[in-house]
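S.,

As promised, the fe (iii) ion run. Input:
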Amino acid sequence: MQSLNQFTLTEAVKESFKTEEGSRLKFLLETFIEHLHDYTRETNLTHQEWMGVLNFLYDCGKISTPERHEFILLSDVLGFSALVDMINTRGGATEGSNLGPFYLDDAPVKNLGDDLATGREGVIVMAKGTVRDILGKPLAGAIIDTWQADATGTYPIQEQERGQDKYDLRGKFTTNERGEYWYTTVLPKPYTVPYDGPVGDLLRAGNRHAWRAAHLHFIIRAAGYRDITTEVFFANTDYIDNDAVFGVRKSLIAALKPVKKGQDLGVSVQRQPDAMFEFEFVLAPE
Ligand code: BEZ
Ligand code: FE
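Predicted complex:
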C-alpha cells in the first residue's frame, strides 16, 4: 500500500502509466505531469480556482466547431503557438510564425506577376524576392503558398455569406530558374482574433486587446527542404509591437517602399503597384 501525500503523488501518477521505456510519449507525459503538479503545489490552487480552469476549458470545447478551434486561439494568445514556432525554426532558416485558422491547401495556382487582388481597392503592393537555401543558393521551382486579409482586415473566407469567394486573395506561385517570385496584391489591414468566446474573456480579464498587426501568410515548400510556415509584417504599422498572438519577429518585418508611376520594376506585373517590399525566404534542408 502506497502512502500518498502531495509530494509522493507525482511519482505514483507517472508510474501508473505503462508507456514504453525511452519513448517520446513517456517523456512528454511524465514531464507534463511533473510540471502540472509543480504548478498546483506552487500556486496552492484552491478547489474554486481548479474548477474555474476546468470550466474555462469546457467552454473552449463548447464554442469550438470545425471552423473555430478555440484551443488553438488559446494557444496563440498564451504564446504557446509562438513558442512551438520558435523552437522548431532551424538555424539560418526563415523564422516560423502563425498558421492561423484561414489556410486552404487548395489555393489557385498563379503565374509570376499576377495580381491577387483583382477588382479590389486599396494600396496595391508588389511582393518580390527570392527563395534560397541556408548557403544562399537560389531555389528554382519552390512553391510560395500565400493567403491574406483584404484592405479592411477581412479574409474573404469569413465573408462567404456576403458573396465573397473563399479562394480570393490567396494563391500558389512557383519561383523561376533564379529562385525569384513576384506578384501584386492589396495591403492588408490589422484585424482582431475572435474575442466573443472564453479566450476573449481571458483577454479582457488581462486588459489585453485582440488585434493582430497586418500581415501576409506564407507556406514555402521546396523538394528536399523543410517547409516554412511564416508571416511577413510591415515596418511602422499598428500593433507591430504588441500583436495579440506574438507572431511578429524582427526578421519578418519588411519595409514598404513607394513606387512611382512608370518606375522600372525590373519585372512585368499585371497591375501597377503603389508600393513594394522585398523579402527573402530561406529554407533549411530536410
Ligand atoms: C490569423 O493570422 O489569421 C490568425 C491567427 C491567430 C488567430 C486568429 C487569426
Ligand atoms: Fe492572418
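Helices lie at 9-16, 24-43, 47-63, 70-77, 80-87, 198-205. The chain has two domains: 9-45, 73-283.

- D.
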